[in-house]
Amino acid sequence: MTIADVVAVLPEVAVTTTALLVLLADAVVGRRAARTWLPVLTILGLVVAIFAGPRTVASHTAFGGFVVIDTFATFFRILFCILAIFATVVAPEYLERRAIPAAEFYATVLFSTVGAMTIALSSDLITVFVGLELMTIPIYVLAAMARRDRYSNEAGLKYFLLGAFSSAMLLYGFAWLYGLSGTTTFAGIAKAISAGGLTNGPTLVALALVTVGLAFKAAVVPFHQWTPDAYDGAPTPATAFMSVAPKAAAFAAILRIMLGTLGPLALDWSAVFAVLAAITMTGGNVVALVQGNVKRMLAYSSIAHTGYILAGVAAYQAGTSASAAVLFYVFAYGVMNLGAFACLIYLDLEGTRGATLDELNGFARRQPIGAVAFAVFLISLTGIPPTIGFVAKVFILQPVLDAGLVWLAVVIALNAVLAAFYYLRVVVHMYMYDVDANAPRLLHPNLLSAGLGIAGIAVVFLGIVPDFLYRWALQAAAPFVLR
Amino acid sequence: MDFLEPVFFALFALGIIGAGLCVVVLRRITAQALLMALTFACMAGMFLLLGAETIALFQVLIYVGAITILILFGVMFTKQEERAYGLFFQEQTRWAAAFVLLIGLPVAYLALSFADPLTPSAKGGDLIPLAASLFTDYAFPFEVASVLLLAALVGAIVLVKRDEQ
Amino acid sequence: MTVPLGAFIAVSAALFFIGTAGVLVRRNAVVILMCVELMLNASNLALVAFSRRAGQLGAGNPLDQRGSVFVVFVFVIAAAEVAVGLAIILASYRNRPTVNVDDLHEMKG
Amino acid sequence: MIQNVWLIPAFPLAAFLVNALFGRRWLGRWTGPLASAAIAASALMSIAVFLEVRAGAERTIVPLYTFISVGDFHVDVAAQVDPLSSAMLLVVTIVSLLVHVYSIGYMAHDHGFWRFFTWLPLFVFAMLILVLGDNYLVMFVGWEGVGVCSYLLIGFWFERPEPAGAAKKAFVMNRIGDWGFMIGMITTFLVFGSMNFVDVFERVAKDPPAQGVLALIGLAFFLGATGKSAQLPLYSWLPDAMEGPTPVSALIHAATMVTAGVYLVARSTPLFAAAGPVLAVVGAVGALTAIFAATIALVQFDIKRVMAYSTVSQLGYMFLALGVGAPIAAMFHLITHAFFKALLFLGSGSVIHGVGNVQDMRQMGGLRSKMPLTYWTMVIAGGALAALPPLAGFWSKDEILGSAFKNGYPILWVVGVFTGGLTAFYVTRAIWLTFHGQPRDRHLFEHAHESPRVMTVPLLALAAGSVLVGFIGFPPDNGLIHAFLGPVVESAKDDQIRPILAGTNWAEFLLLAAISTAVGIGGILIGLSMYSRGRPEPAAVSRAAGPYYDVLVNKYYVDELYDRRLVDVGKAFAGAAWAFDIHIIDGLVNRLGWAIKLGGGGLRRAQTGVVGNYALSIVAGLLVIMVVYGGYATGWLHR
Amino acid sequence: MDTLLTLLIVIPIAGIVPLIVFFRDQRAVKQVAVVTTFIELLVSLVMLAQFHVGEAGFQMTESHAWLPSFGIRYELGVDGISVLLIPMTTLLTFISVLYSTGGAIKQRIGEFMIVFLLLEVGMVGVFMALDLFLFYVFFELMLVPMYLIIGIWGGPRRVYATLKFVLFTLAGSLLMLVGIIAVYLQSGPPGNRTLSLPDLLDRSGRFPPEFQFWVFLAFALAFAIKMPMVPFHTWLPDAHVEAPTAGSIVLAGVLLKAGGYGFLRFAVPLFPVGTQAWLPILILLSVVAILYGAIVSVVQKDLKKLVAYSSVAHMGFVTLGIFVLNQQGGVGAVLQMLNHGFVTGALFLFVGIQYEKTHRRQIADLGGLANTWPLFTAFFGVFTLASLGLPGLSGFVGEFLVLLGTFKFNPPGGPGGLFWGPLAAIGVILAAVYLLWMFQRVMYGTLREAYRALPDLSPIEVVCAVPLLLLTVLLGVFPQPAIAIIEPSVQRILAIAAGASQVVLK
User: Fold this and answer.
1) Three-state DSSP class for C5?
2) What is the complex's ipTM, to 2 decimals?
3) Cβ-Cβ contacts under 8 Å, C9 against chain A
4) Which residues make Cβ contacts (< 8 Å) with residue D92, sequence separation at least 6?
5) Which of D607, D612, D619 faces C108 most closely, judged by CB atoms?
């Protein structure tokens, strides 16, 4: 371990340190001060982490090759930090009202962020697995963090049991991969597998187990069933974070493992992924369509988005543009989905648990800024320009078509119509049904509104000027070129 | 010693599979926990057979020791009762068995395709190389794992600590 | 060594799927947790066995470090999982005194 | 003057614009004189143009601007001044002027006075465009323009349901005809590459296309003509159009607009002549309409309806003439008819005005003493209609019948002569019932009065016309009109059209005239005998005729057929189409949404909330994926 | 000015800023909105004045890299087709906004104006975009504002109607998006791909026939739904009935045009072979739309629904004109779009005015209105007549040219123009039937007492109606100036299509 090694993982160090500082500060300062300063400290730490990372496009390794600092890792590091900042910004008022220990909340978010970042920069099975667990285990905690809330308990328990189960499967698949290749590094495995191909029986077992394990983390149908319950029951700020960061991390892992490691088998798994993508987006949308609870609907919708992203993975044959599309979509999805969940916090402060559609009636009048932001996020999730969600969909469609998956492109398009129905129905309830005039205006936490406002503007801005982000995604995707 | 290996292997395998099955099949929670510990112990034996003494040691310490005890605590803190299935779809044993067999048997069969014989283990133990690589090559995952433990610690505390008022 | 690698792997597979079956058929959260531990252990067995094989392909150590290091990390992870898992079970139990996961189906649909 | 021919329609247009913009607020009653003055200016110009044409300007095209020019299609807004159009100009402007003046009196008490004098000049404008256009498209613009003015004016008293309905009926039936016009016009362009009369007729003469094509075009145009000129089967709007103010009936539905069809066919003579059997169709339809409408007119009691059916019948004569190859005779009759039928209508209007808006002749009677001027002018017009020599109608109708006979259409001649008898009868009946005998409604009679001078002066003018205009066709077959209009038909080099310039065959003329006049006088005598002496008693006759009488009174049940059957069937069809729209097309969409929701509900139930089930589905997924991968590996599944 | 077109996009956006600032002040909001749309109208007229008549290609083009890594450009330009549609759009928007200030919008007027200006951005942009991606963005940008306009300020069933509108439109446009991306991929090797129309037209010879077949279908679906063509039209009556008047005006006047414009601008020249393949069906559907829309209009009981269904019939003429693929048809289609914009926009305006006064829209509840509203009657009558295609008013020229083109249509095999032309012409008869019947039942007859005291048109309403009236008459009497602008561009498109299809088929 050299200085260079430490420098290479400075962002992770920064985030971890911040987590510790937050815990420490909570113990030291008073309650009122903590309420104000803990989020600030968290955000500061994350900002430092963003700027602590390398700015160059050159990739290098550290820790004897166990850490790869490439454009891909950089992309995800920054993305995870942004998502963590966003999650921190929206949380304080909710935590206060629901008596959720704030310091532990922030620290847990930060720990999870470290795990996610670890996934992005890993170059072997061990690191990726440890990272995956470091990312997931805090999420279990986040889900269950509203201790006195039965739904939160249930969410945490379900997520934990199934998550552990799937982790075991993934691990077993890793074990077989190791057995097949005699190594745990991605490069080594790839080399070993390209010799044998899928005809080797054990390869098949390993591939299937890894597919299922990763598909679970990304909430791919039919491995998705934990998602709605976990998202629904968890405290809303936690939901907001857990709906995006673990999914982004899962796709980082999928890219690293499926493309970077199991690339030689891509012909096989991509066919399965294409079908899974179609099933996932359709299943997610169709069930979201019949949800009355907006939080749960958004949970299903996030499954549908998994499908879209997975389509980009399945279209690996299109080359860099496929991976870049995945990265771009993950970014877009992260911002808009987190924002959408966070918009529910306004109502949660009144005591709802993820508002029903009817509870949203008149939201536009009761909370104009929140309603505009929510509408923007929903329109973006639908994929209507000029929002980032639209551009992301375009970027996904392009490689999908390029890879010759015309049917999948059509399925995506039709699914977007389905999705439009339920997303826009929320807008209907916010803007077009009125609640009686006596309904009080909703609380207006400044940090939350500011965060949502900025995110909303970002969603539109990036929808109009997406080029630099896409170029960045292209750079980040450069390590994954398979043809 | 070599001729004993298959015997030990058979014994441990029997212990692992038998005790594992019991964990799944039995209804008494404490027995289940203890049988799980037995599985872990047999596993340690397997590790020894494979020449991984250090791993075997960790296995005993962490699994047979710490984890089993943790789980026993968990058992003690909660009231255990088996009830009839409330809803018909909760009864899924048959489906589960069918699926697991359908997957498990081919996988086990494929497992046997790793036919390479294993050479006799060289003496000298695996502690030194393991430790060396853990703290040099694997320094980064090691650090991450320590963060993981910290995170788990914080998480466990925040979940079970009593409310402050 | 007379026992072939495949035998170890087969035992690990058997244990893995026994664990899987346990997760599927048992309803006690603690028992499910145990079954998950069995699955992790099965992985450990496979890892060690494979590391033995990988080790004899390479030179020097009988065990390839990667496998055994992996196993060590799995130990850590398993411990962390159990700790957090039990904490979650206990937290849930306080609100609703049951460990029967079937009873936790307030969220569905 | 010809180069400024556009001023002729410009005056009415200006009157329209001024009255439309300022009529309601500021001009009020001044709208009438203003419009009349504008028409008078047009009339003066028309006379000037006419004289110039007569002096030798045979055909002048006066382009104004490019109307539509796309690719090889090019149409100018241009006027064609030739004998035919200048004659029409004269008729239209003069009759219009008289009707305008008359209307100042007739409409004096109507609160829609300004509106009336807004629309009437607009009509004249459109009619003049129709007449002047040098191509089918511009003609069509006028054609539809007069249609819409007719619509507006029929529906002038829109607060009552009947005029509103009649107006719509008129326009829609006209539109059916216009469909034919449009097809004819466009096909003409496809065949000839132009819509200009000059180009088309030149091509027909030099390099005629297949007769079938020409027949198609001819039939299409003729369909248009039947709509506008109220021929079978599209005639039924015209009687209903009597719901409009009487001056409108006189101008639009007697003198000018309804003759547009005749003008169209006459204008297209070269085309029709080359189109084979189409002319025979025209003649047959004309004859059939003539007798058909005349029979209905026999039994009507509404004075205006009698005149309306009479108009239909007379228009039938004109088509008969066109069909037998005598376009000049048709135009001649058009001109004379314009005068005497306008007079009959205006006279009727005077009566109606005089008795306070009653139109049923059964309530009139004996009005001769109260309104002598009206009476005498009506008698003159009636005589002209009954073709009594030497009134105008005699000359023109006789020429038609003579042509039919000479050109080899004896059946049409017989029909024409017989219809002449019917005509004489019903006009006698109408005049007698109105003016003679005992007043049948005392109250009405007491209040009856002669119309003011502003109305009677036009009557007198028209009466003079009805007497004198016939002489432009004297001597028969060789009169002024024949010389003047001769060039129109000359270009049609076909044996079907016989420009009757060979000179007068007096013997033939006298014989034929004697026969038809005798039949006419016979009709008059029967009428007089029935209504003045009661021999035979009209009621008895109708009883004896029984069902036949009923058929006539009910106008052959055509309205019933059209309104009840066709319209009902159409509405039912439309209703079915809408049901299809709602239940099938939209239903499918909604059904799809419903099915998706159902599917969502089903999938939702799979989300049981139970962890074990979730885990099971994970394992099931694993199984499937393994099978698929196995399939790929072994080759029984294709990627 | 070489940024004139961008200016047209920027002005409404700039207008939104003061709207947000003065959000609470109703008077200021109205003034800002009216002034903004009026400036926009003036600028669009300046653009029209600067247009060089007779040149076929794009003028006033602007082209900037927008998404360079994807080869997408911010590319604007107008040709003879769009240069007329844009002023139409700005005029109708101005009229809608002006009318809406007169009390038709009773709540949330600030939001209304913001949304309306956003809508204007989309509408204007659609007609100027030369990059397919940009076009798509504007195409969809029209969607959300209209969704809100119907959904928030609409009638009782507004939610159903607006969702239906959005879902129908999206279903089509998303498939088109797939098509656009397919075009992008087909446009060249990686790195040299483009969605810029001028470039694509140069390269369209590269699109193989089967590709054209499917991608044309994707485009056609989007445009057919937007138009709407039968059988994708059922969203239209619902949307119109529920939309507020201003929404109806621009929906009928502008949004539907985006479909026809898209066919002409993109689908036909880019995929000539695909066009040929689908031609029989499109012609059939056009004629069906003309007849079916008219027939269904006959039995409508709701005034707005009647006008909506009549739009279906009228837009049938547009598609018919486009797909007979000759100059007369093409020019006629564009003229018909213009005419329909003014006339149907005006009809919706008047139906709206009428509704504001009587609060009834069922034809059976109305009648005799001509007795008390002479001005209204005059305007409404002229627009009704224009709508039924009376010569001398704008409706005729377009329909006539389309029919002329249809008669000329002479495909190898299958029924030709002499079959379709007369059929389509029947629509002209039917238009008279339903429009005059409507006019008769609404305006003629005896007046109900309840309506006697209702006032005639207000000055604002007259100001709204007069420009439309003038344009209707001008286009009907002097269509040639407009044709001179349109014709070269239509000719160019047809020539490109013909040339490209030869290249592909060779």
Assistant:
1) helix
2) 0.93
3) 179
4) D46, D124, D127, D128, D131, D255, D256
5) D607
